[in-house]
Specification:
Layout: E1 5-9, E2 13-18, H1 37-44, E3 51-52, E4 61-67, H2 70-81, E5 86-94, E6 100-104, E7 107-108, E8 123-124, E9 127-138, E10 148-157, H3 164-171, H4 185-195, E11 202-210, E12 217-221, H5 226-231
Parallel strand pairs: 4-11
Antiparallel strand pairs: 1-2, 2-4, 3-4, 5-10, 5-11, 6-9, 7-8, 9-10, 11-12
EC number: 5.4.99.26
Pfam families: PseudoU_synth_2
Catalytic activity: uridine(65) in tRNA = pseudouridine(65) in tRNA
């Protein structure tokens, strides 16, 4: 069974919804893995080659774009580099952020190759806008308080640094739930135990760009998958 859900397809593009836990393509960090979104996208493309235009981290679910030919991939890659592609993510975070804001915080590059971990990497500018959609407070003492606060936010990255959204939310002390590297372990464990599995509460929900062939405005969106929606049940009683 193909785990990708087809969202859009034409002569140049193939857009899918990727579930959490699936790598986009082979990575030196996960050499043992044998299943990738790339191979499943090829299956949706009648077995023909596809070109990943961007990436989603393995634990992140959501909208993922492939080009069906090399020229479309080149044009979309250029649009990505020049900031002409707009992306929207949804995330559940610890605490109550402001109603909206901008995180303008440079990030040091994170190399894929573990052999470069000790080599100092350059620092790049990084900007993320955010908007708070909902807040909740649950009567559970996870840290030092009798209750615990969480928020549902929309994130709009203006740059594309590795793990940018996860690192930026940690920077403003509102880490994303389920983030093993940048989050808070007690909160991650609480939700993993409560819902029977742990996942990164980050989903790519919308992407907008100019069609590489026609220039027409393309906007594709998808609601987060069921494992994400299940955790959001804590927002049914909002404060």
């Amino acid at each position: 069974m193909n785990p990708l859900a087809l969202l859009y397809r034409d002569e140049a593009l193939l857009v899918v919804h990727k579930p959490a836990g699936l790598l986009v393509h082979r990575s030196p960090i996960d050499r043992h893995e044998t299943e990738f979104a790339l191979q499943y996208a090829r299956a949706l493309n009648d077995g023909d080659h596809v070109y990943p235009v961007h990436r989603l981290d393995r634990p992140t679910s959501g909208v993922l774009v492939f080009a069906r030919d090399r020229e479309a991939a080149r044009k979309l890659g250029q649009a990505m580099m020049s900031g002409e592609v707009s992306k929207t993510y949804r995330a559940m975070v610890r605490g109550w952020p402001a109603d909206n804001g901008v995180i303008d915080h440079p990030l040091r590059e994170e190399p894929e190759d573990r052999r470069l971990k000790g080599v100092e990497q350059p620092v790049r500018e990084a900007r993320t806008r955010f908007r708070t959609l909902a807040r909740t407070e649950i009567p559970v003492a996870i840290e030092r308080y009798a209750t615990s606060r969480y928020a549902l936010v929309e994130l709009y990255p203006e740059t594309g640094r590795k793990h940018q959204l996860r690192r930026h939310m940690k920077h403003i002390s509102h880490p994303i739930i389920g983030d093993a590297n940048h989050g808070r372990g007690r909160h991650n464990r609480y939700f993993a135990e409560r819902f029977g599995e742990g996942r990164l509460m980050l989903a790519a929900t919308r992407i907008e760009f100019a069609h590489p062939d026609t220039g027409a405005a393309i906007a594709i969106q998808a609601e987060p998958e069921s494992s994400f929606q299940q955790v959001l049940s804590v927002f049914q009683c909002r404060n």
